[in-house]
From TrEMBL, chain A:
It holds the Pfam family RNase_PH_C. GO terms for cellular component: cytoplasmic exosome (RNase complex); nuclear exosome (RNase complex); nucleolus. It is found in: Cytoplasm; Nucleus, Nucleolus. This is Exosome complex component RRP45. Keywords: Cytoplasm, Exosome, Nucleus, RNA-binding, rRNA processing. Belongs to the RNase PH family.
TrEMBL record, chain B:
This is K Homology domain-containing protein. Transmembrane segments: none annotated. Residues 211-260 form the K Homology domain. GO terms for cellular component: cytoplasmic exosome (RNase complex); nuclear exosome (RNase complex). Residues 1-34, 176-198 are annotated as: Disordered. The lineage of its organism: Eukaryota, Fungi, Dikarya, Ascomycota, Pezizomycotina. Pfam families: KH_6, RRP40_S1. GO terms for molecular function: RNA binding. Keywords: Exosome, RNA-binding. GO terms for biological process: CUT catabolic process; exonucleolytic trimming to generate mature 3'-end of 5.8S rRNA from tricistronic rRNA transcript (SSU-rRNA, 5.8S rRNA, LSU-rRNA); nuclear polyadenylation-dependent rRNA catabolic process; poly(A)-dependent snoRNA 3'-end processing; TRAMP-dependent tRNA surveillance pathway; U4 snRNA 3'-end processing. Residues 11-27, 179-198 have a biased composition (Low complexity). It comes from the Eukaryota.
Length: 298, 299
């Protein structure tokens, strides 16, 4: 199996020393993200997220199935992540790395278990028919921070996706094609966004050096990491810190506050991108404002 | 790769009848001696095709030097990956040391290369690292500036050599090696700005300043050709920030300057020039380069 490339001593000492001076090789400071670019596909629910050189594709698809017998009112939602050698030669098909497990677990915790998607709204006929939603995440290029990018990709794709309209009359279920009835957006209760902090040990003053949005090089050199999932209202959905250097409560609080601040920016960026796509998509169509919504106005 | 200047792109296995006159030169009146045709990179002898006995094994453009004295032919291309060929200067990372050789990483995700101790010359007297006494004690992960010695498809690993004291370990910690001794031929100093004061600053630094940047093959070609292809970039950067560099053809460049901030500036200029493929612009990237250097280094 191809190993991760060896990082030379020169790079290692330089990056670590520079971080102590709040300096990074790509010119950012420790608390800033790289530029995020969102591109939408022709279909609803297809999004391509780029963050520096990291690139992740997410695609939502839906089909009608029978619900689970123990959860008859709920639709289904699964997230599958796939890491192949396209992202990095160190990833192999059929042999998941540690990062693979962490990633799928974190997405599960952040998006599914935080009830971002109202699964009850996916029910068509109780105990008979429900929508089964599937989010496929593909990693095209790996330059660090896959977790945050994957989370942004899934949330954006869910917000972009439109479900075909279903009418039920008696026993008959009709799924209307997109051309016939305007499809409706999913009912998203909130948008959890992951923010990963990388720790690089303490500087001369005993302060923990923590950086946002680490590149692959920085990820290879860090001594610990922590992922906080938070939404724009400042509600923490989960905190994951598996191993690595010990972090004091004070640092954790500081990270959480910073994450809350960052998430507001990311959230706004996603809303703007979705809005722009909607305008683009409905050029020349004056009826688009009348598009259906499954959620109540709040 | 587009064919520039009307040069034809050659694919691996294409017959090259244009080389035949160089192989069997007609005895001219002034020069009766047969000359040997030197094959450069990308060309190999193929005894099974007697009509065109030389076949390309890489894609690219054919370059022929049909001088009477030294005829030579080679294929040039800019592939995505580095293919070692003899005499290339490279910057490698030490992985481990065995009883006879240094095991080093030439390019990521490939089998390691080796530097046998007898190929590691440590001083001008030609002393090699073969004796335990003269062997440099290099820490794991240190960077060695070396040359490719032997590349053969039937050989397990690419063999490198350190042909003299101007090669060898490049500085990674403060004051371990005097960097200026390395800059004789291959390391390139700033061209204009503050040549003297810049060097003094570099010698007196008390930070860990050298950095190794990974760059594309196209960029490597540009940086190696410091007086031609690389001139616009290097002089633009050097006019703002004094720096030293060593270019390894395996896509790595060692950069040193007077402070970490300066090195980051140089690295960012190189990286963004590389990522933006600015050399492909119609104006040779001059406009974008000016904007980039202004943005990164300030006015």
């Amino acid at each position: 199996m191809p190993k991760e490339p060896e990082i030379s001593l020169t790079e290692k000492t330089f990056v670590l020393e520079a971080l102590k001076q709040n300096l990074r090789v790509d010119g950012r400071d420790l608390q800033s993200f790289r530029d995020i670019q969102l591109t939408f596909g022709d279909d609803y629910g297809f999004v391509d997220v780029r963050l520096g050189k990291t690139r992740v594709l997410a695609r939502i698809s839906a089909e009608v199935t029978r619900p689970r017998p123990d959860r008859q009112f709920e639709g289904m939602f699964t997230i599958t992540t796939e890491m192949g050698p396209m992202a990095s030669p160190a990833f192999e098909v059929g042999r998941p790395t540690e990062l693979d497990h962490t990633l799928s677990r974190l997405l599960e915790k952040s998006i599914r278990r935080s009830n971002a998607l109202d699964v009850e709204s996916l029910c068509i006929v109780t105990a008979q028919r429900v929508w089964s939603l599937r989010a496929d995440v593909h990693f095209l290029s790996h330059d660090g921070n896959l977790i945050d990018v994957a989370c942004i990709a899934v949330i954006t794709a869910l917000a972009h996706f439109r479900l075909p309209v279903v009418t039920v009359s008696g026993e008959d279920i009709t799924i209307h094609p997109v051309e016939e009835r305007v499809p409706v957006p999913l009912s998203l209760l909130h948008w959890p966004i992951c923010v990963t902090f990388s720790f690089f040990g303490e500087d001369e003053d005993g302060e923990m050096i923590c950086a946002l949005d680490a590149t692959a090089q920085e990820e290879a050199l860090r001594v610990g990491d922590m992922t906080i999932t938070i939404n724009k209202n400042g509600e923490v959905c989960q905190i994951a810190k598996s191993g690595g250097v010990a972090v004091e409560a004070e640092v954790l609080m500081r990270c959480a506050r910073l994450a809350a601040e960052k998430v507001k920016g990311v959230d706004k960026m996603i809303v703007d991108a979705l809005r722009e796509d909607e305008v683009q998509r409905n050029k020349g169509n004056l009826d688009w404002l009348k598009e259906g919504k499954s959620e109540n106005e709040r | 790769m587009s064919s520039q200047d009307g040069l034809e792109v050659i694919l691996p296995g294409d017959p090259l009848p244009q080389l035949n006159p160089l192989l069997n030169p007609e005895p001219s009146s002034e020069d009766m001696k047969p000359r040997t045709l030197r094959l450069g990179q990308g060309l190999a002898l193929s005894p099974s095709t007697p009509i065109t006995p030389i076949l390309p094994y890489r894609f690219g453009t054919l370059h022929v030097t049909s001088s009477v004295k030294k005829p030579a032919a080679s294929i040039t291309s800019t592939p995505r990956h580095y293919h070692p060929s003899p005499n290339d200067p490279v910057l490698v990372t030490l992985l481990r040391v065995t009883a006879e050789q240094f095991i080093v990483q030439l390019t990521p995700y490939t089998p390691p290369a080796i530097i046998p101790f007898e190929n590691y010359i440590i001083n001008n007297a030609g002393t090699t690292a073969a004796a335990r006494k003269s062997r440099p004690n290099l820490p794991h992960g240190s960077t060695i500036y070396a040359r490719v010695a032997v590349v053969h498809k039937h050989l397990e690993a690419v063999e490198l050599s350190v042909p003299g004291p101007e090669y060898g370990e490049v500085v990674s910690q403060k004051n371990t090696v005097n960097a200026s001794s390395k800059s004789s031929s291959s390391a390139k100093k700033d061209t204009s700005a503050a040549a003297s004061s810049g060097n003094a600053a570099i010698a007196n630094r008390n930070e860990v300043t050298p950095y190794i940047l990974t760059i594309s093959q196209a960029m490597t070609k540009i940086l190696i050709a410091e007086d031609t292809l690389g001139k616009p970039l290097l002089s633009a950067v050097a006019s703002k920030v004094p720096f030293e560099m060593i270019v390894g053809k395996n896509g790595r460049v060692w950069i040193d300057g007077s402070s970490q901030r300066d090195v980051v500036k140089v690295a960012r200029c190189f990286k963004e020039y590389d990522d933006g493929e600015m050399w492909d612009d119609p104006d040779g990237g001059a406009a974008r380069l000016r904007e980039l250097v202004g943005k990164v280094c300030g006015r």
